[in-house]
TrEMBL record:
<dbReference type="Pfam" id="PF00282">
    <property type="entry name" value="Pyridoxal_deC"/>
</dbReference>
<keyword id="KW-0663">Pyridoxal phosphate</keyword>
<dbReference type="GO" id="GO:0006520">
    <property type="term" value="P:amino acid metabolic process"/>
</dbReference>
<comment type="similarity">
    <text>Belongs to the group II decarboxylase family.</text>
</comment>
<dbReference type="GO" id="GO:0005737">
    <property type="term" value="C:cytoplasm"/>
</dbReference>
<keyword id="KW-0808">Transferase</keyword>
<dbReference type="InterPro" id="IPR015424">
    <property type="entry name" value="PyrdxlP-dep_Trfase"/>
</dbReference>
<keyword id="KW-0456">Lyase</keyword>
<keyword id="KW-0032">Aminotransferase</keyword>
<feature type="modified residue" description="N6-(pyridoxal phosphate)lysine">
    <location>
        <position position="302"/>
    </location>
</feature>
<dbReference type="GO" id="GO:0030170">
    <property type="term" value="F:pyridoxal phosphate binding"/>
</dbReference>
<dbReference type="InterPro" id="IPR010977">
    <property type="entry name" value="Aromatic_deC"/>
</dbReference>
<dbReference type="InterPro" id="IPR015422">
    <property type="entry name" value="PyrdxlP-dep_Trfase_small"/>
</dbReference>
<dbReference type="InterPro" id="IPR002129">
    <property type="entry name" value="PyrdxlP-dep_de-COase"/>
</dbReference>
<dbReference type="GO" id="GO:0016831">
    <property type="term" value="F:carboxy-lyase activity"/>
</dbReference>
<keyword id="KW-0210">Decarboxylase</keyword>
<dbReference type="GO" id="GO:0019752">
    <property type="term" value="P:carboxylic acid metabolic process"/>
</dbReference>
Length: 485
C-alpha cells in the first residue's frame, strides 16, 4: 500500500487542529469582538431593521478565511440586524439573557467536548446536570427523588412533560379521542404544538374561561369536567401557566392541584417564564401550589438570564419519564451496565447532546445566587413602576402585573383611534430602534406589551422608555397627560 496518499490527506486534515499560535490569534480576535460588542451595548439599538443579502452565508470556500473577515461579516449581517436580545432596552416578547459566564461555560463545554448524554461516558457532566435539575426541583418544592432534564428551551421541555403524561396515564391511540385536555387560551402556543407532536391532536381540548386577570377559573373548569364525565370522557391532562406570555398571569395553582388530584389528571405547570421568580422570597408566595404539580417547565434562558439554549423540565415521578424515554440498543450495552446517576439520554429524546449544564453551573457558581435573586425581584418592581407611571401618563393598562409582564395602550385621539394609534406607536418604536416592544391581541383588541426580564434593564432604561413614549406620542399627535410629580 502506497502511504503517500494517506500522508497527503493527513497533511490537509491536520489543519483541523490549530497550532497553539493560531489558537491564540483566533481567541484574541473573538475576545476583542465580544468585548467590543458588550462595551458598545449602550450605543446599540434594541432593534434594527433587517437587510440580509441573499446568498451572503452561502459561500463555502476550499481554503479557510481569516477570522477578522468572518467577524466583520458577523457584525454587519447578524449582530446589527433584527432584535438585539443582549440590550437592556429589549422589552418585547420574553427578553433573553446573556449573562457573560454562560458563554464561557459553552466555550469550555465545546473545547473539552465531554459526552453529557450518558452517565457511563461522563459521570461528572451527568452529575453536574442532574444536580442543577435537583436544585430547581428543590426551588419548586418537589421531593428529593424528582428529576427531569435540561433541554434546549421551554418548548422541548413542555414536549417531554406532555409525552410523559400521555404514557403515565396510558393514553394510547385508541384512548386519545376520549382523554380530555384542559387549558386556557393564554397558554403558550408551544403547548398546543407539543400536543400535536405527541399524537394528541385528536384529544378533546377544552379552553376554560378566565377571570379578568386572565387566570383559569376553577369553577368553570369543574363545570366542564362534570360535563365531560357525563359524556363518558376521561379528564387526562391539566395545563396551568405560572406566568403567561401575554400578561404574566399566574393560574390559581393550588386550587387547580386539588382538582387535578381529585380527577386523577396529570397536572402540568408551564413556568417557562415565571419559574425563577421562585428565587425571590417576596414573590414566591405567588406561585404557591406549584409543588403539587406532576411536571413543571422553567427556562433558565429566561428568568435565570442565561444565553439562549437552555430550558428545564422537572418531573416528580422520574420512573414515568424514564418509561417514556429510555431505550436499549445493542451498541449501547456498555452504557447499560452502569448504575448510579440517571442518564439524560434515558430521560429525553436526545442521545448525543450539548453539555449545557456547564453554561448554567458556571454562572451560578461564579456569581452565587444573590445577584440572580436581586435581579428577578428588581424586574418585577420595574414592571410595577412602569405600570403606575404609564397610568399617570394616561395610558390604559391591563391588570396590575403579578410578575414582570404587563399590557398597555394609548386610548387614542379623535383623529387617531386606539385601534390605529397603538399599531402606529409600535411601528414608531421599531423605526426608532432604541427600544424593542412587542404587541398582542387580547379579546380582539390590540395591546402593547412590556416584558421586563433582561438583566440589563434597570431604572435608567425604564425612565428613558417613558420619555421615549412621550416623544413618540407627541410625534403622532397623541395626547399625554401631565404627570402629577
Ligand atoms: C417562552 C415560553 C415557552 C417556550 O419556551 P422556549 O424556550 O421559547 O422554547 C413556553 N411557555 C412559556 C410560558 C414561555 O414564556
Amino acid at each position: 500500500m502506497n502511504l503517500d496518499e494517506l500522508k497527503a490527506l493527513e497533511k490537509a486534515a491536520r489543519q483541523l487542529e490549530p497550532s497553539p499560535n493560531q489558537r491564540e490569534g483566533w481567541n484574541r480576535a473573538v475576545h476583542a469582538y465580544s468585548h467590543a460588542f458588550l462595551d458598545s451595548l449602550q450605543e446599540r439599538n434594541a432593534y434594527d431593521a433587517p437587510a440580509v443579502e441573499d446568498g451572503l452565508f452561502a459561500v463555502y470556500p476550499e481554503e479557510g478565511r481569516p477570522m477578522e473577515e468572518l467577524l466583520a461579516q458577523l457584525e454587519q449581517w447578524v449582530d446589527r440586524q433584527g432584535i438585539n436580545p443582549a440590550s437592556g432596552r429589549h422589552l418585547g416578547y420574553v427578553p433573553g439573557g446573556g449573562v457573560y459566564a454562560t458563554a464561557l461555560g459553552d466555550y469550555l463545554a465545546a473545547a473539552t467536548n465531554r459526552y453529557a448524554g450518558i452517565n457511563f461516558a461522563s459521570p461528572g457532566a451527568v452529575k453536574m446536570e442532574n444536580e442543577l435539575i435537583r436544585w430547581m426541583c428543590r426551588l419548586a418544592g418537589f421531593p428529593p427523588n424528582s428529576l427531569g432534564n435540561l433541554t434546549s428551551g421551554g418548548s422541548i421541555a413542555n414536549l417531554i412533560a406532555i409525552t410523559t403524561a400521555r404514557d403515565a396515564l396510558g393514553v394510547r391511540a385508541e384512548r386519545v379521542s376520549k382523554s380530555v385536555i384542559y387549558l386556557t387560551r393564554q397558554v403558550h402556543h408551544c403547548v398546543q404544538k407539543a400536543l400535536r407532536i405527541a399524537g394528541l391532536a385528536e384529544a378533546p381540548i377544552r379552553y376554560i374561561d378566565m377571570d379578568r386577570q386572565f387566570r383559569i377559573r376553577p369553577d368553570a373548569l369543574e363545570q366542564q369536567i362534570r360535563t365531560d364525565r357525563a359524556a363518558g370522557l376521561t379528564p387526562f391532562l391539566l395545563v396551568a401557566s405560572a406566568g403567561t406570555t401575554d400578561t404574566g398571569a399566574i393560574d390559581p395553582l393550588q386550587d387547580l392541584a386539588a382538582i387535578a388530584r381529585a380527577e386523577g389528571m396529570w397536572y402540568h405547570v408551564d413556568a417557562a417564564y415565571g419559574g425563577f421568580f421562585l428565587l425571590s422570597e417576596k414573590l414566591r408566595p405567588l406561585l404557591q401550589g406549584i409543588a403539587q404539580a406532576d411536571s413543571i417547565v422553567m427556562d433558565p434562558h429566561k428568568g435565570l438570564f442565561l444565553s439562549y439554549g437552555i430550558g428545564a423540565v422537572l418531573i416528580k415521578d422520574i420512573k414515568a419519564q424514564y418509561r417514556s424515554y429510555h431505550y436499549q440498543a445493542n451498541y449501547m450495552q456498555d452504557a447499560a451496565l452502569e448504575s448510579g446517576e440517571p442518564s439524560p439520554a434515558d430521560l429525553s429524546p436526545e442521545l448525543t447532546k450539548h453539555f449545557r449544564g456547564l453554561r448554567m453551573w458556571l454562572p451560578l457558581q461564579l456569581l452565587g445566587a444573590r445577584p440572580f435573586k436581586a435581579a428577578i425581584e428588581e424586574k418585577a418592581l420595574l414592571c410595577r413602576y412602569f405600570f403606575h407611571r404609564a397610568q399617570e401618563m394616561g395610558f390604559e393598562t391591563g391588570p396590575e402585573p403579578a410578575l414582570s409582564i404587563m399590557i398597555f395602550r394609548h386610548p387614542g385621539s379623535e383623529q387617531l383611534p386606539a385601534e390605529q394609534a397603538n399599531p402606529a406607536l409600535i411601528r414608531k418604536i421599531w423605526e426608532d430602534g432604541q427600544f424593542f416592544l412587542s404587541s398582542t391581541q387580547i379579546g380582539g383588541e390590540y395591546w402593547i406589551r412590556l416584558a421586563v426580564l433582561s438583566f440589563r434593564t434597570h431604572l435608567q432604561e425604564i425612565e428613558a422608555l417613558l420619555l421615549k413614549l412621550q416623544q413618540l406620542c407627541k410625534e403622532l399627535g397623541l395626547p399625554i397627560a401631565q404627570e402629577k410629580r
